[in-house]
C-alpha cells in the first residue's frame, strides 16, 4: 500500500500523444513566471508638475483665498471661462483697488497727448516730460502753432521725438480746425486724430469721459492670452473677445487691473508666480518663479514705493497680512 501511494505522488503529469505536456499546464507556469516578474519591476517615477498653492502667497488682508486650484482643462466650457475671468478681475480689484491711469493729466487734451507720447516708452518718462510741454503749450491752439524744433527738444527724452512731435502738433491742429479746440468724446472722432488709435481712444474715453472701453496694450495682450481668455493675437479681435466676457461697465477698470498686474507681477520674461494673488486661477502657473521668497524679489515698483502710492514698499500691498495703502495723494 505504501509503495502504491508513493508511486501516485511521484507520477509525472500526463503527456499527449506527441509527448508534450497539455497546454493548460504550460500556460499556467508561464503566467506565474510573468506575474512574478511584474511584481519585482518598479513603477516609473511620476513626473512632478507645478501646482499653484490653494492660497496665494501674495494676498492683501481680508481677501478670501481660492478654495481650490481650478486650472482650466483644455475643454473649458464658455460658462466656466466667463466665471473664471470675472473671478480673476474681482481678485485683482482687491489687490489693486486704487488702479488708475499712470499718466499724469488734468484735462482730456493733456491725456490724449500724454497717451500718444507713451508709445515705446514708460509712463514715468512721459510724466517727467509733459510738465514742461504743457507749461509752454497749455492748449491745443498753443501746441498747434508751436515751432516743431522746440517741441522736439522737449520730447527728446521720450524717444521717437520727431515722429511724436509731428503727431502731437498734428492732433492739436485737428482739434482746433475740426472740433473747436475740444477733445471729442466719440471713438469714431478720436481715431481720426494723428497718432491716435483705438487703444489711445479708449484710454481717453474711459478716463476723461467715463465711457467704458478696453485698452489692449502689450501687457493686456500678454496676460489675457496667458489666462486663456482668448487665443487671438490681433488687438481688435482681443478687444472683442475679452469684452464679451464682461459687462460693459467693467471694461475700463478691468483694463487698469490687468495692466497694473502685468507691470508689477506677471512680467513678460519671468512672471512672479509665487507672489501672484491669482495663481490658483492661472493656467500658465509655473512659467515663472514659484518660490514665494524668490518671487517677491521680482515684484516691480517705482523708486521710493509701489506705483500708485510712493511711500511704502510693495510688501505693504501684497504680503499676507498687509493692508492696502490709500490712493496717490491721499493722507
TrEMBL record:
Its cofactor is [4Fe-4S] cluster. It is an enzyme of class 4 (lyase). PROSITE patterns: ENDONUCLEASE_III_1 (PS00764), ENDONUCLEASE_III_2 (PS01155). Residues 1-74, 305-331 are annotated as: Disordered. Residues 117-264 form the HhH-GPD domain. Binds 1 [4Fe-4S] cluster. It catalyses: 2'-deoxyribonucleotide-(2'-deoxyribose 5'-phosphate)-2'-deoxyribonucleotide-DNA = a 3'-end 2'-deoxyribonucleotide-(2,3-dehydro-2,3-deoxyribose 5'-phosphate)-DNA + a 5'-end 5'-phospho-2'-deoxyribonucleoside-DNA + H(+). [4Fe-4S] cluster binds at residues 266, 273, 276, 282. GO terms for molecular function: 4 iron, 4 sulfur cluster binding; class I DNA-(apurinic or apyrimidinic site) endonuclease activity; DNA binding; DNA N-glycosylase activity; metal ion binding. The keyword DNA damage applies. Its EC number is 4.2.99.18. Residues 7-55 have a biased composition (Low complexity). Keywords: 4Fe-4S, DNA damage, DNA repair, DNA-binding, Endonuclease, Glycosidase, Hydrolase, Iron, Iron-sulfur, Lyase, Metal-binding, Nuclease. InterPro entries: DNA_glycosylase, Endonuclease-III-like_CS2, Endonuclease3_FeS-loop_motif, Endouclease-III_FeS-bd_BS, HhH-GPD_domain, HhH_base_excis_C, HhH_motif, Nth. SMART domains: ENDO3c (SM00478), FES (SM00525). Gene3D superfamilies: Helix-hairpin-Helix base-excision DNA repair enzymes (C-terminal), Hypothetical protein, domain 2. One of its GO terms (biological process) is base-excision repair, AP site formation. Belongs to the Nth/MutY family. DNA repair enzyme that has both DNA N-glycosylase activity and AP-lyase activity. The DNA N-glycosylase activity releases various damaged pyrimidines from DNA by cleaving the N-glycosidic bond, leaving an AP (apurinic/apyrimidinic) site. The AP-lyase activity cleaves the phosphodiester bond 3' to the AP site by a beta-elimination, leaving a 3'-terminal unsaturated sugar and a product with a terminal 5'-phosphate. HAMAP family: Nth. This is Endonuclease III. It comes from Streptomyces cahuitamycinicus. The gene is nth.
Amino acid at each position: 500500500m505504501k509503495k502504491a501511494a508513493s508511486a501516485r505522488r511521484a507520477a509525472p503529469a500526463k503527456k499527449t500523444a506527441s509527448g508534450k505536456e497539455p497546454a493548460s499546464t504550460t500556460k499556467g507556469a508561464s503566467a506565474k513566471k510573468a506575474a512574478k516578474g511584474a511584481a519585482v519591476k518598479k513603477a516609473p517615477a511620476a513626473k512632478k508638475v507645478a501646482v499653484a498653492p490653494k492660497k496665494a502667497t501674495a494676498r492683501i488682508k481680508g481677501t478670501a483665498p481660492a478654495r481650490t486650484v481650478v486650472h482650466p482643462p483644455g475643454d473649458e466650457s464658455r460658462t466656466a471661462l466667463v466665471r473664471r475671468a470675472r473671478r480673476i478681475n474681482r481678485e485683482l480689484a482687491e489687490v489693486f483697488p486704487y488702479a488708475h491711469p499712470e499718466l499724469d493729466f488734468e484735462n482730456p487734451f493733456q491725456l490724449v497727448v500724454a497717451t500718444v507720447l507713451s508709445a515705446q516708452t514708460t509712463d514715468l518718462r512721459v510724466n517727467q516730460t509733459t510738465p514742461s510741454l504743457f507749461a509752454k503749450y497749455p492748449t491745443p491752439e498753443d501746441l498747434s502753432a508751436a515751432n516743431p524744433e522746440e517741441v522736439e527738444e522737449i520730447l527728446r527724452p521720450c524717444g521717437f521725438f520727431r515722429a511724436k512731435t509731428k503727431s502731437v502738433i498734428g492732433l492739436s491742429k485737428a482739434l482746433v480746425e475740426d472740433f473747436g479746440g475740444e477733445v471729442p468724446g466719440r471713438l469714431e472722432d478720436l481715431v481720426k486724430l494723428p497718432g491716435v488709435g483705438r487703444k489711445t481712444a479708449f484710454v481717453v474715453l474711459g478716463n476723461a469721459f467715463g465711457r467704458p472701453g478696453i485698452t489692449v496694450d502689450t501687457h493686456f495682450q500678454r496676460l489675457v492670452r496667458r489666462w486663456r481668455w482668448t487665443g487671438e493675437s490681433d488687438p481688435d479681435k482681443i478687444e472683442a473677445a475679452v469684452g464679451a466676457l464682461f459687462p460693459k461697465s467693467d471694461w475700463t477698470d478691468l483694463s487698469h487691473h490687468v495692466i497694473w498686474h502685468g507691470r508689477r507681477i506677471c512680467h513678460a520674461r519671468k512672471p512672479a508666480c509665487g507672489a501672484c494673488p491669482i495663481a490658483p486661477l492661472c493656467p500658465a502657473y509655473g512659467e515663472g518663479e514659484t518660490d514665494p521668497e524668490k518671487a517677491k524679489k521680482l515684484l516691480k515698483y517705482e523708486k521710493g514705493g509701489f506705483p500708485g502710492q510712493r511711500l511704502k514698499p510693495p510688501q505693504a500691498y501684497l504680503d499676507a497680512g498687509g493692508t492696502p495703502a490709500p490712493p496717490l495723494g491721499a493722507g
